[in-house]
Write a structure and sequence with these properties.
Layout: E1 3-8, H1 16-25, E2 29-36, E3 55-59, E4 65-69, H2 73-84, E5 91-98, H3 110-120, E6 125-131, H4 134-137, E7 138-140, E8 146-148, H5 153-169, E9 177-183, E10 192-193, E11 201-206, H6 214-217, E12 232-237, H7 246-252, E13 257-261
């Protein structure tokens, strides 16, 4: 039986990660690509209701057909599953995100929340991300210009193997979606089954008096903005993670992390409260 897979993301339909995801699984299924028309990182599960959305047919770098939606990642999944595709997807893949999505902070991730939206439609999902190590992924060319080296090789292999296992065996009972994170600077290719870390980001609000982050804060301002009136929420990756967590596997062991998730967050037993 041939699978039908819908692929979306939060980086935008022309991001290199969405093409990598398509290439990873196109030998296993009929693949449809529907994604936001521009970057929608960190928008969570925002949905556009009772407002017009622009749906356009476009072409990916390999010449294959895709659709762009002028909305959020969750919008793109709904439009793809309910409108673009003639059949209900057997699986939704979101990504491959250019970044990291771990810990309980995943509820702000457009990548993961698009997968959550798929689950609400009755479709199992995989959210996939590539953590690009700053020391190895950002390089300079012969002219000194900086560029990002997107190496999706391992991420594509792991994603392919997971989808093949799902195709042959189905999703594990009780699991609604998988959250996959693969490091670019991996030291081990074997996948670790993990649990969510407590958090991924330490967030700090700064203003123009912050010397440590002055370079980040002092970007060009609009003419009508006064710098004294501006603040900014900044973040840094958490440095320490519990063993067995997604952050520990990804950032300490430097190996792929696969976290099985359920959508129902109810705590079932409060009889002694």
């Amino acid at each position: 039986m041939t699978m039908n897979i819908l692929i979306s993301n939060d980086d935008g339909v022309f991001a290199p990660g969405i093409l990598a995801a398509k290439q990873a699984v196109e030998d296993l299924a009929n693949v449809y690509v529907v994604a936001p028309d521009k970057n929608n990182s960190s928008v969570g599960r925002r949905i556009t209701l009772f407002k017009h959305l622009e749906l356009k047919r476009c072409e990916l770098e390999d010449g294959s057909e895709a659709y762009s939606v002028s909305g959020s990642p969750a919008d793109a999944v709904i439009v793809g599953a309910d409108y673009v595709m003639d059949v209900k997807p057997d699986l939704v893949i979101t990504g491959i995100n250019q970044g990291v999505n771990i810990s309980c902070d995943i509820t702000s991730s457009g990548t993961v929340c698009a997968a959550l939206e798929a689950v609400s439609l009755g479709i199992p999902a995989i959210a996939s991300s590539l953590f690009m190590d700053p020391k190895t992924s950002f390089k300079q060319d012969e002219n000194g210009e900086w560029y990002v080296d997107y190496d999706f090789t391992l991420a594509k292999k792991v994603l392919h193997d997971i989808v093949l296992k799902i195709k042959n065996e189905g999703f594990p009972e009780g699991v609604d979606l998988f959250n996959l994170n693969v490091p670019s600077n991996y030291e081990c290719e074997d996948v670790r089954i993990t649990h969510l870390s407590h958090k991924m980001l330490d967030k700090v609000v700064i203003d123009n008096t912050n010397d440590e982050k002055a370079e980040i804060f002092n970007y060009p301002l609009d003419e009508n903005q006064e710098s004294d009136d501006l603040i900014m929420i900044t973040s840094d990756l958490v440095k320490e993670y519990d063993e067995g967590s997604d952050g520990y596997a990804l950032l300490v062991e430097k190996r792929p992390s696969l976290t099985p998730l359920t959508v129902n967050m109810t705590f079932k037993d409060l009889k002694d409260w």
